[in-house]
Specification:
Pimeloyl-ACP methyl ester carboxylesterase; AB_hydrolase_sf; seven-stranded mixed sheet; monoacylglycerol lipase activity; AB_hydrolase_1
Length: 233
């Protein structure tokens, strides 16, 4: 199986690995990666299968995608950060990657309540493939222009068949973390609603929300996202 595409920034003494969400690619980290470099990290980000410059597969499954990122990324990074689908895959790869710290950004851990809702959710993502520049600007008005440009490029490269990986997805309930772990949530978060967030906090996760943000927290309010991350780090 062809290797996944990797992007790298900086040459610091510490290593951070980044895993983007569905429909995105490594350019999702266009602001995060340089800031981490300034903090002394060597940053390595991966394009998920069917995303960015990584190969397309004949079929996609969560387990296979998890295996792929575990093989593509270096072991024992000082920091591992995943968003949405990337956070779900990262959670499944933690025992192999063995990072010293972990950040999950609005992780795609919640299962849809029923099949009809699941279809609505996947259909809403699938139609993004055909979004025009005008639709991107209108739908993502709070994003900076460069972030919208990266979204447009990522959508052109994205294989919508990756959505099939979620067929039959029953949700993911993470065990107590083995290393310091931060969950950064949108406000409101549909992936980790408040009752669940409280349980995860009791389980040992640090849980923070960035006020009045949508799912892609680091593009909705980068300053707020970075402030939360910096305080925790």
């Amino acid at each position: 199986m062809a290797q996944l595409h990797i992007e790298q920034w900086g040459d610091g003494d510490r290593t951070a690995v980044l895993v983007h969400g569905i429909t995105a690619d490594t350019n999702s980290w266009w602001r995060t990666a340089p800031e981490l470099v300034r903090q002394g990290y060597r940053v390595i980000a991966v394009d998920l299968p069917g995303h960015g410059r990584s190969p397309r597969w004949e079929a996609y499954g969560l387990d296979a995608m998890t295996d792929a990122i575990a093989e593509a990324l270096p072991e024992r990074p000082d920091l591992a950060l995943g968003h949405s689908l990337g956070a779900l895959l990262l959670a499944g790869a933690l025992d192999r990657l063995r990072p010293r710290r972990v950040v999950h950004v609005d992780p795609a851990w919640a299962a849809p309540p029923d099949e009809a809702t699941a279809k609505v959710m996947t259909d809403a993502l699938r139609v993004q493939k055909d979004w025009s520049e005008e639709r991107i600007q209108a739908s993502l008005a709070r994003w900076e222009p460069r972030a919208r440009e990266h979204k447009s490029t990522a959508l052109r490269r994205w294989d919508p068949a990756t959505l099939d990986a979620f067929d039959g997805f029953g949700g993911y309930d993470p065990p107590a973390p083995k290393v310091p772990s931060l969950i950064v949530l949108a406000d409101p978060s549909h992936n980790v609603p408040p009752p669940w967030a409280r349980k995860l906090s009791e389980r040992g996760f640090t849980v923070r929300a960035v006020p009045d943000t949508g799912h892609v927290v680091h593009n909705e309010d980068f300053a707020g996202f970075w402030a939360v991350l910096q305080e925790w780090l």
